[in-house]
Amino acid sequence: MSRQRIRMGSRKKKACSLPAPLCSRISPCCAILQRRAGRRQRTAYDSATRLTVTVNLSTRILIVDDDAGIRSLVSSFLEKHGFQVNAASHPSEMRERLAQASYALIVLDVMMPGEDGLSALRELQRIGGPPVIMLSAVGTDVDRIVGLEIGAEDYLAKPCNPRELLARIRIVLRRTAAPVAVPPPVRDAGPAPDSEADAVLYFAGWRIDLAARLLHDPDDQPVTLSDGEFRLLRALVLHPRRVLTRDQLVGYALGSDSDSDDRAIDVQISRLRRKLAFGDTRADLIRTVRNEGYMFVPAVSRTRPA
Fold first, then answer.
1. What's the alpha-carbon Rg for the chain, to the nearest Å?
2. How far apart are CA 303 and CA 200, in angstroms?
3. How far apart are the C-alpha atoms of 148 and 159, rounded to whole Å?
């Protein structure tokens, strides 16, 4: 599926033919995207609650495209990645869908018979509709500028890889969604340190020193972790025995303004599992929870087991 590409006709994306200095003055696409990136939600902390943007299984996406094949392809791909997806073949059907349910994001085609996507986008902006990613065979600089200026959060030219569309959707949702409260780390009955950064934690014979950024295996041998692996493990041990979505892990380990997608977290988890494999049993300390995320299985204590 990841090799399939979303196509319409044989039109291809055209490169800008203007000289670079002139193009940089009259093509504000990058500047628009940079301004929006600067407004991204930032993760906030207090003593009891950590706020981060999450995407969960109830996130609903609306696909608006007159091509039935594209609607089917995109809907099927996004559903396999945990989204609820509805489709509409025309802006009028889009309005009916919006009257029946709320949507976190709309993927809107530009070139449709009758009322085009830009007109529908203007109406969505007027009524305060959900964020929009434009999807179109028209990929010139002028078309992208018009779509972004009207209010689209992003603009993808056909053909595009569905995985790229998925990554763009997740980025827009993290950028525009309201923060969701995440429960604070579970504390045991042992003495609490002055701050989480000073904690030395124990799990399944392992020891992790969060201040010194050191991990020791059950034989008390140091285990080398990359910066990303350490931050990911820190997030897991501070939230043991609960499911963390991939988007939560991106927020915890990389920051809520990160553009990393699910694949980056999956790769880090795979590397971390290999480094946490110990002895003959090689118990999997990080469990995959299908369609949800990951769970750190062992109990975590602030006191060394007897």
1. 23
2. 8
3. 19
DSSP, res 160: B
Task: Report the distance separating Cα 93 and Cα 237, nearest Å.
Answer: 47
Do the bridges between strand 50-52 and strand 44-45 make them parallel or antiparallel, or are there none, so unpaired?
Answer: antiparallel
Q: Which long-range contacts (CB under 8 A, 24 or more apart) does 192-201 make?
A: 192/302, 193/302, 196/238, 199/302, 200/302, 201/237, 201/300, 201/301, 201/302
- The rounded distance, in Å, linking the Cα atoms of 285 and 203 is 9
What is the four-CA torsion angle of 208, 259, 94, 103, rounded to 10 degrees? 30
CA distances (Å), 169 to each of 53, 153, 235, 289, in order? 13, 10, 24, 22
- In this structure, are residues 82 and 291 in contact, taking their beta carbons and an 8 Å threshold? yes
Strand partners, 182: 50
Per-block average pLDDT, block size 10, for the chain (306 residues)? 48 44 44 45 33 52 92 91 91 93 92 87 88 81 80 85 89 68 42 56 93 92 88 91 85 62 79 83 79 89 83
**Do 206 and 216 form a contact (C-beta atoms < 8 A)?**
yes
> Rounded to the nearest 5 degrees, what angle is found at the Cα of 202, between the Cα atoms of 199 and 205?
155
Helices (H) and strands (E) in the chain, counts: 10, 15
Q: Which residues contact 106 (CB under 8 A, 6 or more apart)?
A: 61, 62, 63, 64, 94, 124, 129, 130, 131, 132, 133
pLDDT value at residue 263: 72
Domains of the chain: 20-181 (3.40.50.2300), 196-296 (1.10.10.10)
For residue 211, which phi and psi values (nearest 5 degrees)?
Answer: -75, -45
